[in-house]
Protein 1
Amino acid sequence: MTERKGTAKVDFLKKIEKEIQQKWKDEGAFEVNASDAASQKSNGKYFATFPYPYMNGRLHLGHTFSLSKCEFAVGFQKLKGKACLFPFGLHCTGMPIKACADKLKREMELYGCPPEFPDEEEEEEEDSKEEEVVIKDKAKGKKSKAAAKTGSSKYQWGIMKSLGLSDEEIVKFSEAEHWLDYFPPLAIQDLKSMGLKIDWRRSFVTTDVNPYYDSFVRWQFLTLRERNKIKFGKRYTIYSPKDGQPCMDHDRQTGEGVGPQEYTLIKMKVVEPYPVKLSGLKGKNIFLVAATLRPETMFGQTNCWVRPDMKYIGFETLNGDIFICTQRAARNMSYQGFTKINGVVPVVKELMGEDILGAPLSAPLTSYKVIYTLPMLTIKEDKGTGVVTSVPSDSPDDIAALRDLKKKQPFRAKYGIKDDMVLPFEPVPVIEIPGYGQLSAPMICDELKIQSQNDREKLVEAKERLYLKGFYEGIMLVAEFKGQKIQDVKKIIQKKMVDNGEAMIYMEPEKQVMSRSADECVVALCDQWYLDYGEETWKKQTHECLKNLETFCEETRRNFEATLDWLQEHACSRTYGLGTRLPWDEQWLIESLSDSTIYMAFYTVAHLLQGGNLRGQGESPMRIRANQMSKEVWDYIFFKTAPFPATKIPKAVLDKLKQEFEFWYPVDLRASGKDLVPNHLSYYLYNHVAMWPNQREKWPVSVRANGHLLLNSEKMSKSTGNFLTLSEAVQKFSADGMRLALADAGDTVEDANFMETMADAGILRLYTWVEWVKEMLANWDSLRSGPADTFNDRVFFSEINAGIMKTEQNYEKMMFKEALKTGFFEFQAAKDKYRELAIEGMHRDLVLQFIESQTLLLAPVCPHMCEHVWALLGKTDSIMKASWPVPGPVDEILIRSSQYLTEAAHDLRLRLKNYMAPAKGKKSNKEVPQKPSHCTIYVAKNYPPWQHITLSVLRRHYQTSGGHLPDNKNNLQ
């Protein structure tokens, strides 16, 4: 975007914002206690929460967009007279912080302090681009935030440098605890700078550094275990066969943060005639097994790929079947229950890929009775099984390779591939993707002019374009899944194939993991504690919770339903990282998706326990020690019928905590990105049902999921520079300028778009509005008084009231972009029209009503400027104590009359312009016409006969059908 000419206007806004934020702090504007709220007889309560962000970096604009939904909703509900609570915690549980700290330690051990790293060219380079686009199943795949947020630097030291830290400061981060000291205060500082309505007394950090939160999580898990929600059994984990134990991050030479990746293992049965090299295995069930991330596409299989020069093996499985794949994949499978002896691969045949080319196969789901094994030259041995199933309708790689074979007869001849193994097989429509049709892969390959399977860069681009769009927007075209979204049926199709014996679940590390003993790790089934989300009674009750949950969007509800249908077990324990230890088995830590499901209940009492001390290590306002918070004490606070415990804590004190919980619960709004629906948000529902099974009034009320945030119509990315932190955005656009652009970015679950041009325009709009208010107040005596009864007065009065009503409806539906449109853009336009048309002058009463209404309508989004204007109006109380404006009557006919006059005047101007300036290119000897001095407008008193008859028929149908217009077929009758 173009450089700004100056910063005077944004500096003006930021100066006001700092003054207003200090005013709110001094007044404790957002600190609210249950006892006070109850005594003030408010119009109910409103409790909003946002998933606490992870503390290994600064908050960015994506975080800010999601939490703005809570912020705007709280601002509106506050104006509606409700007691509002918006608390904010800071998450430190899990592996990422510990892994990063330990990585810094290793780098200093290996390379000195400050480290002197080897030249890049001396190191083994990783592929710069991942050729496989993965749609992460965030509930199963355990790729940690450390892996997701480390940026492009190879070394952790470099990543810390990129944050602007000095060598001396970086050394401190080699201790995990320092991260908890450093980033949480910065997060609070950044959040305060945007003017959030947060009760900071209730803020805290997680993990056992906070004894109160640690006690709370232990209570939760003791309760879940009592209620038989937690089991012990086999779960997938990264494992070192050489060491004979799970390989956690601190045990790894490479691959920190890498977790298991789930695949669907497709079983393609070899049918007669067998290839020569397999003829000795007649009588056995032989399968080529392909690992896919896209089971929903199996309806479109046309062939199977192997690499001619790659080594394969056939090995015997637990039930006597023979699986053909690479040795590496078989090694992984042997630790996942595929073979009779754990870790032993019973090889029955060693093969080259060329030995099985042309083998006929029977593949599940496809409409082709027999497909064939064909050569693909780009298959990698370090990923998957070395066997690839081909779906050319939806895979750019597959259509490119298939076209190569079809076009190049010598290529087929080289590998002994007959024409009837290739030429009859055409792509099968399986999925429709908006913009790419029913055969997306052929279309995008044509669009990018991909000539062969060797056009690797173009193929990577093609996959990136298709796969994410396909996952979120693709619609199935086949079988009983026709018309359903991919994200809703992916797991269901996988389960169906597994249940039918056509596929199996297979895991391998997301990327190579090497242990400190130089052993390449596998994924193994190891004993772990897990939450049994598949248990039928629990699942059924969670469905009941979902049935009454407000999701604001049907797509969000469908995503919840699909998740609850397939969700089974979730491992809740780890041996490495930060967090709370399992109370009954302290070798295990509770992982980060499991200690974050009901902490909203902790918010209700945190201020009384911790008093705003993030670590809970100061003096408790209620003089309660953390070691006094026994399970029975927590039960008494959170469970309505629990008896008073044996404790030295006075009953009056515990009753105060109990009162806070009873007043604020349930959570009225949980706002989050849509990517958390399949994991955190579903676990949130499950755990509330488990903890309060007989108190449905404590179950969540609503969940508002939003799409990802684009920046200037492009994906946010540090590597491309298209990235903004929260602090950068506030500095660049002011808090209210940023907030206005966030509200305008989007309301749906589709991707939203933060436009810097919109933020800049917002700065100008806000500045102009404040200046206009000051001008009106300065010239108050010159404004018209007396009766406000002119045509334009009455129109403006109705438009103000209509704007209030529409904006209230939009805020109620959490449609903030629409609320901004009706409550600011259109509202301002109505004022501008009134100012322009009211030749007799604007009426002071209407100007005052407009300013007050505008201030209140915009306050949830831009509270600083609205607080400032509120003070300019002479209001002694903060706008945070004001009420939503009560609209007067709306005369729709009057508004439509005004619109008609405006449109008629516009039409006359256009006619006059065209009359005075004839169209170019027409030769004419006529003189330029004289400008008309007046115009005659003819107004029909009655509709033409044909319109009168039509309206009469429609009116009759409308009245007899209960207020519904008939369809065209009935109209014709």
Protein 2
Amino acid sequence: MSSISFHDRVRESNGEYQVAAVRRRPGVFFSLLWKDARLAAPMWTVAMLGTAGLFLLAAMLRWYLGEWVVERSAFSALWVLLPNLIALGLPAALISGENDDRTLDWLRTIPISHRIVVASKMLISLAAWLTVLVWTSLWFAISHAVFVFRDTPIITTDEIAPLIGYGLALLGCGLIAAWWVRRPIVAILVTAAMIVAVSVFANLGVRWMLVGDAFSKYPIPDPTTGQLMAIYIIAALTYATMVGICTLLGRRRFTGATDESSPQWLLSLSISRLTHGFPSGRSLASFPTNARPTARKALLWQQTRQTGWVMILAAIVCVAVCGTWLTTEDSEARGYSAGLALPAAQLLLGLMVFSGDRRHSRWLFLGERGISSNLIWWTRLRPILAVSLSISLLFALTLMITRTTSERLDPNLPDALSYMVIIAMFTLVMFMGTCLGQWFTRLPIAIFASPILVVLWFYLALWLLQSLPERTVIVWLIPSVAVFAYSTWRLTPRILEGQRGVVVWGRGLSHAAIAMGVLFVGSLFQWLITLPPAMPQWRAEMLLTSGPDYGSSEFGEMRESLDIKDSIIWWERPIVPLSRVDVAELQNKLSKELDEQNEIGRHIAMEQVVTLLLYDDDSQDANRFPESVDRNTIEQMQLESIEIALKWANAIRYEASWRHSSLYQLLEVAEPLERFAVQALTNFAFRHDYEHHPTGEQTTVEPTKQAKRFANLVRQIPSSERRRRSRRQSLIHEYQQFHQQLQWDHPSKVHRSLPFFAGFSIVTRLDPLGFDRIRAVRHLDIAVRLTLRSLERGLPRWSTAEHEELIEAWRKVFPGGRSARIGGLTGEEFPVFTINSEEEISELRNIAGTLLGND
């Protein structure tokens, strides 16, 4: 059938041309494709723009802040995740969109086959998923080649083939679930369960084909050509089966009477009884007055009916998370459950607050009946808010029980405040979901876009909150929750009027910006009131201080070409199991290391030396020598390990005072080695009773020679003045190097490295404005000044007020507070030194003096 436009008729009457333009109408299948494409366009657009935005954000953060913030795996995760999200949410959006627009009821009145409708949705879903996959791969290749690793391969066949296969299976499961279940959220949950089942059966089937045992734990070998063809044929048959199931379910769904659900009619009946009386046949007088529900009760009842399954699902998730925290101590399982499952449940609760009214187009229906927008807002929010708060309180109670029963954590005031922070954070996520549910007209699009927007908002919010003390975070979180609650209240009457698009988006984004502004003002205010005073004069004096020339005689015979190997740097390595150690080889290593002059740590590693220093006859079986090794041999190796430890410690202190070694080497090598050596010498003296019997026990062949060797080892312990000078000089040198790094990494530079002190960063990795850097540098000035003062005036005793003051000063320097440490094996936190070790060394010197005097 053809039609001639008005302009063509005018041109024909004017003699412009004699042949009229003829335009054919599109076919039915093409019209269905166009309609489905318009339904999928919002989610497809969000996916395309979100993909570009996320890849650009990750690439720019990596380029600006370095690979510590955005690792290479983040780009691969985006490349895998984004196309699969489209495959998960697009089928539900397409078919639930038919319910929202009432187009499926309209299609039932047209003489068309259900196969055309199912084929149209399949083709649009496949085309949208393929375009997103190609678009994501393009951005992954660009960001990978330009910003990340230019010389490494980007995408290989072994990576793209499983992604395509998994995406097609996920798309098929999504179409089956969308035709089977009417509610989009339930369809997405069913899709997730189906793809898990398909993945498990596929893995078991492939393992059975290649290994012969589906439950074998052996690695899967590379398939042969025949096995690979068989896997491809089975996959093709599986996809064909999914197409057939979609066709059958589409026929069942398409031939139904209507997709209208009952809650709309139940609500209409309740409201009509209030406004227009009861149906004819019974008079109003026949009903008692208290039997007529009020508008508030009707709205609450209807909201509970339509969102009850979501609230039950959220409660089940909360019970599962709480059970995980109570029954397991796996930090990874606890982190995923509390960091992903509970926020997802809270976000889903928020999205469902107004989803029923969107889905059933009740806004005009409720507005025309004169129901107050405030009443609608409160009755829609009240059941969801009650469940959200109950979930938060239950998890906080579980966390309180876990911390109370733990042996390592005791309940105190900061923990109690952290419970309030958790409740506020979860409530904030719920209100953000409510706002996003009002912004988007379709629920599947809101489900797809809301996690991205919430993560971006919280990414900025946590960057602002991470520098705040735990006691004040709750002060600034509550106003943000109030801002989002106010946003939902202000948007409700506008949505009742039928407004959508930029009007709703603009106001919603402005409210989100206000909430972010509250956090920014709070963090800025907290930064100003907690910023320590500057000490420019003292800092200038310290930067101009030069190290004194102590001379080589102060530290004995040391070669200037001393080389410190990385093998002696202690990174909390495990103790070497002595039951599996070759004693002859260990003795050979000790002898060679004692004879070495130019290098330290060349023949033996630090963990072996520490194992010998800490050896005890009462230790566990794995840390004990075999019974064939006699006691004299063990003591001989212990004395050699003590000599090596003191040799290394003296070398490090020589480098710290003469060669300007780093503070990190002093704290991680010299200090722990001296402490372990002193402990080993103390145990040796106690075992031989040198304090009461200066000549030593008569249990060895040459007790006097052994006692002399013990006394000589004690004399090798650095003096208190030598330790004080090395600590002071290394601390000053590290401070000067730190400020040189700050001068090179000026804030005006685009790419700045993280300022490190003694090998640890003193600021967070996200500090583009430099607020944390300024505060950390001033706290560092105070900590260094206090430490130098304690080194000059005398070291404090453990757990005294001066010692606690030093600990607190260094805690403010490093991010993480109580969890941040340097010098982990020194016995003290941070570069804080006490007089307790000096007293132990003094006792050993008295014993050694007595031994040498008696000799």
Protein 3
Amino acid sequence: MSSQVRERSPRLAGRSGAAALAALAVAHLFLLPLPSRTLHLLALLLGIGILLLFILLFRTNLQRLRAATLGALLITLRIALFGLPIPPVDVAALPAGVAAAEGEVRALLAPLRGAQRIVLDVSGVRVSVEAPPNPTLRVGDRISATLEYISQPPEVRERARVRGIQAAARTYSVTLLSRGGPLEWLRTRIGDDLERVIPAPAGGFAAAIVVGLRERVDERLADAFTATGLGHVVALSGWNVAITMAVADRALRRLPPRRRRWSLIIIALLYGLLAGASASVIRASVMSAAALVAAAGGRRGAGAVALAHAALALLILDPSIAYDAGFRLSALATAGLLAKSADWSRVAIQLTPRLPRPLQRPWSVIAEDVAVSIAAQAATIGVVIALFGRVALWSIPLTLLIAPLIPAATGAALLAILAGEVAPYLAGPLSLIPSALALPASALFRTAAGIAEAGAQLPLTDLVVPRHATFAVGAALSLIGLVALNRRAAPPTEQSAEPKIGISGRVSAAGGVAILLVSSLLSSSSAAAPGSLRISVLDVGQGDAILVELQGRRMLIDGGPDPARLSVELDALIPSWDRKIDVLVASHPHEDHLAGLPRLLDRYQIRSILGAETRGGGPASASWREILLNRQVTYHTVTTGTAFMLGSARLEVLWPDQAALKYEPADGGSALNNRSIVLRLDVSGFSALFTGDIESNVDALIARRLEGPVDMLKAPHHGSATASSRTLLQAADPRLSVISVGEKNSYGHPSSATIDRLGERGGAVLRTDLDGTVSVTVQSTGIKVTTDTSTSMMPTRAMIGMQRLWALGGTQVVDALWPPLQRLGADASAPAGCPLPAATIRAWPSQRILRYSSPGAMTSF
């Protein structure tokens, strides 16, 4: 009889579970938006009532009810005596308007359209702040900024209040006063190392998984994880902690119980610290560690009791965590693992012989991880739907695909961190070593990210539950999960104690080699063909970033507004073992062209930087100036007439004139746009014009300097109404115009009138907001234009001219060739590039360790 009681008691953790559940219910009651006096009075009255009930039940045999009463009493007494650690609903005065502020960064939130989102503590008031991407902030940093406070709807303000946030604001400039502690420095350093050697977006995903830098996950990848119901993978919820602890528990099962318990405690603490030591991660680590350490002692039910005790203790310390989704998911995921991970792992192993023979060996490897994942999912899926109102139909099968990859990827990340540390110091053939060390982690994280991205394209991926039905659907699924988790499993048999089929080292090695080969092929296939010119107008949102590749040389013009998005686009085109850019052009210091560049220097080897105007601009411009002042970079100031070679292509600066740079820009808008560098590229049979953000009052000058039409035009200023005048378009007469513009941007770009003007002469017009990244590859057969949705071919202007001449008889072909092509033919035959005018280098006001090349040396890259 005692054995039966012992078997049944772990199901709801007995009295401990009843106390924790009652405490959770009462804590929710006190989170209602009540005035502070009413809340205090309610706590006193309810506490007195519960105390009387507890006294009445003290001598009864209703042990669970008595325990529940005690749990509720502890919460009411805590609130009555010490209040809630969140702002009261009737706070006297909240910040409003525009005000200068100084404070400490308490938390980093997910970025939004490239902007950083932080929680700033300003004199005890916590404010959610949307800030520009530069400088990159860390938890613990002290900053000053001018905050523009934002009015919020009541329901949004109430959700923020329960999370401890009292106001919301935005700022357009941040001054960094001091950095945070060594732990944040270490986490940032590890994240930088991972992103240096693992291609984006997988690199940011790795930083989120390994050290909790969730803000580094690309927004589009984060959307894919959310849409597929895999948000718990990157959110550092209880799923991550529970999976990590369960895997560690299984790996340490051969250790003696005492050493095993201490090892699990150390792993939990280290994971919590490296994952950011945020409140949610610490709570998840404490609950998971307490439960699994107790379970590791071998006493059945001890883990569930420890989990209940840990949850109750955390609720007493901070009753407001009852509202926190991370707390709920952490507790439920750990409970699911304790209830069924062992039983379902055994069932999963027993399935092995029933599968087709080719699947038996792979299944025997992942069976236990799959069971662990299903147990966590069954416990949390109802709450996820009730909280977020979404049903991801493919969530469980996709989780089953990703779950086995995460432990292996995390282990492989240790090699990637080492590779990231040594990568900046290795050049030439030695630079392949970091890529080789990081290849396993890169392959595994890229596979996991690819699963989420592919899953987001599946039909019926993300079903939105009607708002009025979220609670009902969530409750129903929670009930189904509860029944499944409480269903008694058959006792283990000797036959099922061990899997019948193992997996040989040869098969493991073959699988690992296959993943590495596929990852390597994906990286190498993205590179430009050795002999062709490829120009890619990258889809970086509302901004510009253009990659030019020819004969192994690369030039990047601008970096867009979002560092993470720029990394994703570049890493999709440049192999991870060849991260170098020969020429980096900063056309002008506006955020939508410059904000992505400061972090680029940490991930790519930059040979030379070209610029013209450096004054003005926003925080990205300030960060850029600081980089140029404090790092050893080769910087050239270029003006009209400067020319250089990129492989066999000749590039000439058509604007700005040196005289135009003598004075400060008259304003930070059109005047700064009109300081943009304008570049013309010519290679045998093809030409292109890159115009930055110049507006129509500069067009006449550019038109006079063009010396003939071009095949491709990067439309000026994102297709605005004040750019791309007919004067410029008649002179350029492009076969193809590309507008770099953000989807649904607030500026109304591109203008319909500008689109009409670009198409008047019969040329094609493409837009990055509709077509994605536009790649133009010049081949012997013509111009190949590739977008995210289509591929087409068109002849170059030179080819059309040749066809017309041959149609007329072809006797005067050489004499009648297009003049720029004639001029370029002579240039292309010159050995090692043509002699160029010396670049005039305008020194910075405080020129310290800038390393400039000597005049006349900027001839070839």
Protein 4
Amino acid sequence: MASVRQLGRMAWRKYNIDGASGSGFYKPDTVDIFPFTDAVAAAIDAIVVAAGAVAAKATKAALEAVHGASGDVGIVYAGVDAGIYIHNGSAWVFNRELPEAAAQDYADAAESAKNAAEAARDIAEGYASDAVSQGNVPIYGTFGGISGLTIPGGISGIIVNGRAAVGDGGRAFLKKVGAGPATSGRTQSADGAWWEVSDEVNMAALGGKDDNATNNTSAMQAAASLIPAGGRIVFPRVSATGVYLFTGGILPVNGLYLDVEPGVTLKGAFSRPQSPGENPGAVNHPKVIRRTRVIDTSTGTDVEMWLNPEYLLPLGQKPFFLGEGNLSRPRSVLLNPASDLVHQYIAWPAGDTWAAATPTTTAGTVQWPVEALNRFRISFRETRWAEQVDVSFSGDADAYLRAAAIRTTGGHYVFWADRETNALNIGYKATGVAAVTSAVTIPGAATHDSQKPQWALWGIQAINPFAFAVLINGVRVKVVQTIAPITHIGFGVYNTTTTPTLLGWRLLKSKSLFGVGQQRLLCHGDSTVADIYGGWPWMLRQLIEGSMGIRVERLTNRAVGGWSSADVLSDLQTNGINDSNGNLPTCAFIRVGANDIQAATSRLTYISNMEAIMDIFIAAGVPVVVAVPAMFYSQALGGGSGQATSNYYFGAAYRAALQQSIAAKYASSGLVFEADNISSMGHVLGSYKGSDPLAYDQILRDNIHQTDGGYHLDAYAMARAALDALAPETTKKAGRTLLPSSIAAAGMTLANTSSFSSDSQGQITLALGATFTSQTLSGTAIATLPASLKPAQTIILLGDAGNTTSLVRVIINTDGTIVATSSAACSVLNIRATYARE
């Protein structure tokens, strides 16, 4: 049998016996759950009352002070009123005389019973206090029901399971306090004690409701008054609405921690809540435990905002420190159009040759005259790479085509737009080849005037010798990888009926890698790409979102489990690559081939399919990240579970051939990038399956498909390749690059080994060879270097004439022309030079 102390630790529930025997459990009479000590205390109170009913009192007045019920017996054992009394329901009535000896016996017995009962009650109250001290806090139904409860005197703290009803979210701990007025957080029990919400303050416990209708201001004020500065107020999610509404002024939230449960919104006049650390002394500076949604109504219009946890960490907890590698050191230079730019025009779309043009220039502007000759007229900066030029256009209401142009040693790119458009037209003309055109949408231009061509700040970044970007308001809208080195970047017009002015010319050198801009991503392939248990594409989005200025507008995953390379190719040929809104992706991700390997599809067929897939994206000008087929193993190696597989050991031939194709496509287009997924995962072995993650964590959940850990590694590899495609390295460095034969002067033939390279500082190393009819050179023109290779100062050096009898003096002029003078006849000239361009 349990002891009284053991029974005291148990929870008890009142029942109403209203069912027939054997009909099942009795129905609860009330939802209140109470500890055994409450029952003990109530029973002892009853004993005391009963003892008082037969207690011998010295006087009739003392007996009348005892509240009795009809039929109760009372004794007066002294004085003129001595005798036995019976209570008639309203008063004590004399019944009969009591002999003195009997009266004393009754009095002694009654007093003994009374003392025993009171001692028992004291013991019970002491036990109750002891139970509280040991953590067994009495639990009652609701805050609202406390006023009808008599709580044992030894209790100093209680718990309620709700505000108005059990389970309504208002569970709270209340401590006994001194007398005070009733508030949202303070109430009085029937025994006269006062109880106040303490410890963690819960809005629902104070009468708050997340129904977006109840005004929670008074509950909030009560909560703020119950906790010290820096205290915490909990906002539980109770209703489906999940919105705590506050009306009637700015909330007193300064310095408080708001513990807002996920899915809950705070709505009211917040008077621009400050992010912690932004303005700690602000009048309305709350601190939140987690990212919290707020709807601010202080302006009369609902404004959504988010409060974030504070990150004012001590030095030892800082996650990182900035170092030299984190610094951006761009240098801004004013461009003088009259002296720093080259003004040229070209016929579009057929022209290959740029000719001199004559706009009106000042120290800060370029003005083009009226013209309708289907020509682009551009003011160029002869680029030194890793630099950016910005400009704005005048005549906001004028309908003329604003333009940007980029020249390379192999052709030119042009971008143009009229004033009320939301897209840039793109044209590319390789020398001797017909022009091709496309377009790119300007994010937000359909709805934001600031993004439209006539209002926007235009920019061009020569990211490196083989990549450039066109920018709108400082953010890239198109990145292009070129095959030939970039030589010029500039801005101008195409056909005008007015005289537009380009102003605000600014050169930014060594611009850091930011402003990549809005992206639409397309993923395709087999079940290793498909959206199964989350998948890596969503992790990829999280990785690159916000990196280098990237904002992911949309991610589309069209991968299907069981598909082969032929299935993916057929889908792209049939349904195209545009999303459901008709927009091209800005970057695509392809991985397919595991099923080709299992089916023993011809390796040549597989590669033909993959190259056709890559060509679809190349034709659309969309960079595509390609990963070789995933590594997998047999069902037996996985312990017998998973899926039946075939030919898992045949994969090397497919992967090697695909790597060759990727390299070739990149070399010819600059648009195909390889994601090194298999290296990022390490060895994929069945022996790791089910292993201790502190030793070897498994990569595959069966024998072919990734775990969440495998997904993370896939996403990491894909993200690295994506950033290579979307954000080419900003650098002046270039590897050995062949010079175009077209730079040779008349009568000269450029050796096919003629090339240049540059280091990260832009210093050029030139290796140029020419052959010609045997002659004695005398200031003879040999070649003209591309604009991007012009030296900062005239260079004079000795060349090699291919013999031991002739000396050749070579001059490389700042305009890029190379001339030579020899001491005797020669037919060969080799030049080696290293020089600075600026």
